[in-house]
Write a structure and sequence with these properties.
The chain is an alpha+beta fold. It has helices at residues 9-25, 56-59, 86-97, 116-121, 144-159, 186-195, 210-216, 234-250, and strands at residues 31-33, 36-38, 42-47, 62-67, 70-79, 105-111, 162-167, 173-181, 199-202, 221-227, 266-267, 269-274, 281-285, 292-293, 298-303, 310-314, 319-325, 328-330, 335-341. It is built from 8 helices and 19 strands.
């Protein structure tokens, strides 16, 4: 038995069936979240923490909850775990704004700005300089990152039937629309397929990530990545919004899905194309995100601004460009293109 046995498709469907049957035989009542009562058929927005102390301002975040008028699963959606990934926040906002709680089945539990302090300051990391998405499940007696991770993980692990974690590229890189999933988890893989947007990138979750820790508790979890940091990109926001609604439709929470991409490509391996040693300079990509490449395909150029020498960057594997650095100064070893390998 693998550690993700509970995360198979049959288990997820059985879970949803149990939730539905249990809910039909018991009252679908109000729920209390972070000290706030949310009635069936209603939506609510409130801060996670009520305290107004100095440190609370670095830990607090908004909470959006839509409690459906009829029983169903709880889908949790998180955004801006990395504070510079602003597309994720707008995706979350749009999904919630479009919810009619009177017609909703189950509950949508959303943390649309987990790293709110980082979002306000346009920083990827939390105020103590740590990457929040390497800090889960957290520690109640740890640093700011550990405390925040502990609060979030403890709350979500107790309530979620499935998780969608929204992200974008970071560190001056942009990502082709993609859903990241551990393919060992069949239930999570099915969520990725049902998301219906972009391609699917298989791989185990990094240690300390929210996705990985939720999987370890038996909760199916996926990540959506689309676009780059710090700016709103309408096309990527629209795709992500549709994808979340697709999952909600699959779970029986809403009647109408968004647009679905038929048969998304699945990549189980990826490779980075980096700046060769001693060939730093100004990077200019020549292919767009999503482009298909063969081994040896010219992808871009790095120009040495001192000598004017040009270094051509070529693909080392056949595949598809799923991520790339924005045009910028680069040095030896810097990542330029992320390629999904067939």
């Amino acid at each position: 038995m693998t550690r993700y046995t509970r995360c198979c498709v049959g288990a997820l469907l059985s879970l949803l069936s149990v939730v539905s049957v249990a809910a039909e035989t018991a009252a679908w009542e109000a729920v209390e979240i972070w000290g706030n009562t949310v009635e069936p058929g209603s939506r609510s927005r409130f801060p996670a923490l009520r305290g107004r102390g100095f440190e609370a301002s670095f830990l607090n975040m908004p909470v959006f909850v839509a409690r459906g008028s009829k029983p169903g699963p709880t889908l949790c959606v998180t955004a801006a775990i990395h504070g510079d990934e602003v597309n994720s926040v707008e995706i979350a906002r749009r999904v919630f704004a479009g919810i009619d709680a009177a017609k909703l089945g189950g509950m949508l539990y959303m943390l649309p700005m987990v790293n709110a302090d980082g979002f306000r300051s346009r920083n990827r990391v939390v105020t103590d300089g740590r990457d929040l998405n390497r800090s889960f499940p957290g520690n109640a007696n740890g640093s700011v990152a550990s405390l925040l991770a502990y609060f979030v993980f403890t709350e979500l692990a107790a309530r979620c039937d499935a998780l969608i974690d929204l992200h974008t590229g970071s560190n001056l890189r942009s990502n082709y629309p993609q859903v990241r999933v551990d393919l060992e988890s069949e239930a999570s893989t099915e969520l990725a397929k049902q998301f219906g947007v972009g391609l699917i990138l298989g791989g185990s979750a990094p240690e300390g990530s929210l996705r990985g820790e939720m999987l370890r508790t038996g909760i199916p979890a996926i990540i959506y990545e689309g676009g780059g940091p710090l700016l709103f990109q309408e096309e990527e926001v629209a795709r992500g919004t549709e994808g979340v609604r697709n999952v909600m439709h699959y779970l029986g929470m809403v009647e109408k899905p968004g647009y679905v991409t038929p048969q998304p490509r699945i990549f189980e391996r990826t490779r980075w194309v980096r700046v060769p040693r001693g060939q730093g300079g100004f990077f200019f990509p020549e292919l767009p995100l999503g482009a298909l490449v063969e081994e040896g395909t010219r992808m871009g150029v790095v120009v040495d601004p001192v000598t004017d020498e040009e270094h051509v960057i070529v693909a080392r594997h056949a595949g598809q460009i799923i991520g790339m650095s924005l045009p910028q100064p680069v040095l030896s070893g810097n990542p330029l293109f992320h390629v999904g390998v067939e």
